[in-house]
Design brief:
With 115 residues, the protein is an all-beta fold. The chain has strands spanning 3-7, 10-12, 18-25, 34-39, 45-51, 57-59, 67-72, 77-82, 91-99, 102-105, 109-113. The strands form two sheets. Strands 2, 4, 5, 6, 9, 10 and 11 form a seven-stranded mixed β-sheet that branches. Strands 1-3-8-7 form a four-stranded antiparallel β-sheet, with no helix packed on it.
Length: 115
Amino acid sequence: EVQLVESGGGLVQPGGSLRLSCAASGFTFDDYSMNWVRQVPGKGLEWISRINNGGSTNYADSAKGRFTISRDNAKNTVDLQMNSLKPEDTAVYYCNTLHGGRNYWGQGTQVTVSS
C-alpha cells in the first residue's frame, strides 16, 4: 500500500524558513517522480515542485529561487526547503506521486506564514 506522510509544517514569520519532509512507503521510491502541491482553503491545488527519479527538478514560478526540492532514495524521503517565506505561502502542503495510474497524496502539513 502506497503511503505518504508529510511533516515539518508550522508557524513562521515572513522571511523565515521551513523544511518539509515526506516519508514514502509501499512502492519502489527510486523509480518515481515526486511532487509537492499546496492548497489554500477554498482554493484549488497549486503544484509547487517536482523531482524525477533521476533528480531533475522543476518549480512553479511562485517557488523559483526560494524553494528547493530534494530526495533521499536511501531513506525514501522527499524534502522541500522553503526560504524567504511570504504570507501568500500559507497553505496545506501535500506530497504526491502517480503510481499505477493513480495519484497518491499524504495527509498534508499546514504552513502558516504570519507575523
